[in-house]
Amino acid sequence: MGAEGTAAPLFLVDDEPDALQGMALTLQAHGLGPVRRIQDPRLVLELLREEQPDCVVLDLTMPQLSGEEVLAHIRTHHPEVPVVVVTGVDLVASAVHCMRLGALDYLVKPVDEQRLIASLRRVRETMELSRENRVLREAMVKRDLSHPEVFERILTASPALLGVFRYVEAVAPSSQPVLITGETGTGKELLARAVHDASARPGEFVAVNVAGLDDQLFADTLFGHRKGAFTGAEGRRAGLIEAASDGTLFLDEIGDLAIPSQVKLLRLLQEHEYFPLGSDVAKRSKARIVCATHQDLQARQAAGDFRKDLFYRLRAHHVEIPPLRDRREDLSVLLRHFLVRASADLERPVPTPPPEIYDLLGAYSFPGNVRELEALVYDAVSRHRGGILSLDTFRAAVRSESGTATIARERPSAPPAASAGVTFGEHLPSLKEVQDALVGEAIARCGGNQSAAAAMLGVSRQALNKRLRK
Hints:
The protein is α/β, with parallel strands linked by helices. The chain is built from 19 helices and 14 strands. The protein has helices at residues 17-29, 42-47, 67-77, 92-101, 113-140, 159-171, 188-199, 215-223, 240-243, 259-271, 297-302, 308-314, 330-345, 357-362, 369-383, 392-402, 431-445, 450-457, 461-469; strands at residues 10-13, 35-38, 55-58, 83-87, 105-108, 178-181, 205-209, 224-225, 237-238, 248-252, 273-274, 283-284, 288-293, 317-320. Helix 5 runs antiparallel to helix 6 and helix 13 packs across helix 15 (369-383). The radius of gyration is 31 Å and the shape is elongated. The N and C termini lie far apart (71 Å). Mean pLDDT is 85; it is low at 1-5 and 404-421.
């Protein structure tokens, strides 16, 4: 649910001022504002022409206009507005009639507070998701981003990733959790920051990696503690939830969270409140939760390591970042960016990359994704001594993945019986047979791309062509 002041109001309709006052205070105490108190039910019909509330909480017995008449009018003229009946009429026939008219719930006074709060929270979440779906459908047909500056930290030319950006823009105003999944090194924290920036929330973006936190450390980190809560707690400590108030709390590596901590996080998401360690007074949470993981949470569910109810709570909005191997169009953009940044950090002139580098990188799967490409570029620039950028660093990565042996920098004291990863039968192949097999394997692994195959073999494109012609 959105913070009070940003959500649509709740209409409380009752001719008794004390009943209105008591219900309004109860709802506001549970973070369910803003509320509009209406003593004259005839005003509801006028107000509905001016604004759409999240819900109408309606009494039945009123002198000016009965609640059933108001309910029938809403169903006819404003069917999208949900209605919850709260009344002193404890009759089955009345309840059945109201439900047939379209009421979502029927509560009898004196109302159980927890049931009322639970009912209105369900209504609020349904209304919010309905609005988000409408915005999302509109966003999916838009080609351009409304706020491209939000994503300036993420360099891309990939249509798939641009589609992710449009989705993020659509769901950013929501207060529902966002789950970001993707392989290691794809930039999940950068996207989490983009979610926060796109939301225009006034609070801070606060990030914490929860991997390795035991249950007490997790609770202390997020919720804080009171003085004397445990040995060594010499003063009050605010948790990260409080630091992220009106902002975004980013929980990285959520797949590694222990089960007891998962229970605490689930309660926070459901009730929007928490208890600092050592305190029995609940505090309201105004932080939006964004989580990320490289793990398969459904597989962890099946293994009993991740709660199913938490999984479905977290993925109210789900973003999957495609790996770098599925967006090859980003290689040139990222390569140029990292070359400039590495050269500046290492205080060296920007080297010129050889044309065949793109074919070589295109043949590599990048298991470490963007982070691995950055590390390879920094290593290559640190070894660069002028002229054209050497491909040695990149060739080593490609060869390592393909299983071919790399050439040692120092000659071994004794020749091995067989090269690493290579076995021979009783018949020892000739040098020509080995060369033919090696060239054929490189061409196959590069999908017929001769430039990439040449780079993998450490020869020029012309030398490879000459070999193929023979």
